[in-house]
Specification:
The protein has 210 residues and is mostly helical. Among the domains are: 53 residues, no CATH class; 76 residues, Orthogonal Bundle (Lysozyme). Helices cover 70% and strands 0% of the residues. The radius of gyration is 43 Å and the shape is elongated. About 16% of the residues have low confidence.
């Protein structure tokens, strides 16, 4: 009987120790988990904030495409107006480096620069020297689309005159009646700088140009 009671006591004691050990392990795990979670949460939050800030600062593809499109449009406009003035394809001081090689921060500035250049070229092309005189001479000479040989256009240029002062236009666009009025006037301006108004002696005199 005593042995039975003693054995039962040992069993109960062992069960109590096992329960206490399990409780201690569970408490320690809870404390460890509780101590780790705030740090993990803080780190995750900081990383997320940094990623969000980087996304805000990083330019999007739409913004880059917007400025690139404006730069190219203004470059093309500048070349077009300079071609009117020069009588052929214009060379500009544009960098040969591709726009994609530029930093995003430079694109808005470069867009403003080319917009100003385009406006300056437009203004110059539309205000050739002695514009009032050329307009007056044209009224006496003929239509801008006058195709009657041997003189063509609104300032009545013959083929030799066109070849000398508007050679590129003559080769690529045909006779002066196919040129715009500004192209015809700027061709006359190139001749005027060398010969004055002598190619239009009578009409220039009527217009009071000399």
């Amino acid at each position: 009987m005593r042995r039975t009671i003693f054995a039962c006591g040992l069993v109960l004691a062992f069960a109590g120790l096992t329960t206490a050990a399990a409780a201690a392990v569970g408490s320690g795990t809870a404390r460890a988990t509780a101590g780790t979670n705030p740090a993990t949460t803080t780190t995750t939050t900081t990383t997320a904030q940094a990623a969000t800030t980087a996304d805000v600062k990083r330019p999007g593809g739409h913004a880059i495409a917007y400025w690139t499109r404006h730069i190219r449009r203004s470059r093309a406009g500048t070349r077009r107006w300079l071609a009117v003035i020069q009588g052929g394809p214009a060379r500009t001081s544009a960098s040969r480096r591709h726009l994609s090689a530029l930093s995003y921060a430079r694109l808005p500035h470069l867009a403003r620069v080319w917009r100003h250049r385009e406006h300056a070229a437009w203004w110059r092309a539309n205000h050739p020297p002695e514009l009032r005189g050329w307009t007056c001479i044209h009224q006496y000479e003929g239509s801008w689309r006058d195709s009657g040989a041997p003189y063509y256009g609104g300032l009545q240029m013959d083929l030799g005159f066109q070849a000398t002062y508007g050679g590129w236009l003559l080769r690529h666009r045909g006779t002066a009646d196919h040129w715009s009025p500004l192209e015809q006037i700027w061709t006359a301006v190139r001749a005027w700088r060398v010969r004055g108004f002598s190619p239009w002696p009578s009409t220039a005199h009527y217009c009071g140009m000399y």
